[in-house]
Amino acid sequence: MDVGDRVVHYAPEQPSSLPELTARLFPAYQVDGGRVYLAGCQWEDRLFVRLRGQQNGRAEELWTDDHGQPLLPELVQQLGLGEARPVTVPPPYAPGMFQRAIEQARERAAGVFAPGGETSVEEIAAVWCKFVEGKLRFTIGSAWVDLPFSGWARTVEPPPFICPRTGRATFHLAATDDGQILDASAVGVCEVTGRRLPADELVRCSWTGKQAAKELMDFCSLSGKPVLRSELRPCSVCQEKVSPAALQEGVCSACRGLQTVSKADPRMARLLAEYPLLDRWRRWQLAETETVYILTASGLWKKLLVVVDKETLELRHLATGNRLQSHWQPVEPGQYAFVLRE
Ligand SMILES: [Zn+2]
């Protein structure tokens, strides 16, 4: 006898249409300036088998999957298999697969209901559960990204989007102006250009307080803090580019705070080792910033200003002046050697 003849078909309460499925998935996402679509979805009816029988006068029930493997009680509960209702038209299935599944379930039942003896299966139910697999597509402007999902139609949950920039799981998406779809909290706006950028490419200007793209920033030579390049001003003495916060009447706080220094000072010693000709000058004064040493010295009539990179000891600026006047005359780089020899 064909076992199919004795089998009753059931299905649990479960979403079985696209609108029902999308109603489960879509509301989880917030897509700034865009939306979520279903980019593909496959439904599959998977078979579970319930056998009811008797053992020593006691009613027994056994659930198996389509390979005769027993089901965990939690799965039976999650999928609502116990409350499944009969269906008049079962989903299309391959008869060979179906018979094999029923036979395997019966073999399993033989060991459970009446070990070593005759089985007394009284009822066989085929319960069909929908399994879905598909892709959600998020589009913002011309940018898009897919997110696969899969699960039982009854229990499938909207999967979180993993931000490719931060690795954070999120349900709130936004796009940068160059078309990267990211976790919304990883997208920021440059307050200078208005462009939407990855937040980690934005830096706050220590002078204006504006958050702006890294490439618009430079560092104040004095504080080492980021300042919008367009805001940096050269100090009229050392020519270092500094935050307006450091300037008073065009002179930076380092140049206003030069301190007398002796040749024994390790910083002076380093400098004299690099530029021995400086030894001819007297009355050294020094200040340092994050990046440079600023030095002044005097001769009999002339005065000298030297700005040197702290790390490389490279000359960044050289100027001369008259001891009786306050202003400085910058020296062309080509003339540095000549001036140092004087
Ligand atoms: Zn200065």
Can you characterise this structure?
By secondary structure, the chain is of the alpha+beta class. Among the domains are: 3-152, no CATH class; 258-341, no CATH class. It contains six helices and 27 strands. It has helices at residues 18-25, 73-78, 95-113, 253-256, 266-274, 336-341; strands at 7-11, 30-31, 34-55, 58-64, 85-86, 121-140, 143-152, 161-162, 169-170, 172-175, 181-183, 187-189, 196-198, 202-204, 211-213, 217-219, 226-228, 233-234, 241-242, 247-248, 251-252, 259-260, 282-288, 292-298, 302-309, 315-322, 329-330. The strands form nine sheets. Strands 1, 3, 4, 5, 6 and 7 form a six-stranded mixed β-sheet that branches. A six-stranded antiparallel β-sheet has the order 22-23-24-25-26-27, with no helix packed on it. A hairpin with a 6-residue loop joins strand 18 (233-234) and strand 19 (241-242). The termini are far apart. 25% of the residues are buried. The structure holds zinc ion. Zinc ion (ZN) is lined by residues 235, 237-238, 240, 252, 254-255.
The separation of the N and C termini measures: 117 Å
Strand content: 35-45%
Number of helices: 6
Which class of secondary structure composition applies to the elements? alpha+beta
Ligand set: zinc ion
Mean pLDDT: 91
The biggest sheet, with number of strands, parallel, antiparallel or mixed sense and barrel status, is: 6 strands, mixed
Radius of gyration, taken over Cα atoms and rounded to an integer in Å: 40 Å
How would the global form be characterised?
A: rod-shaped
**Oligomer category:** single chain
Low-confidence stretches: none
Binned, the helix content reads 10-25%
Strand tally, please?
A: 27
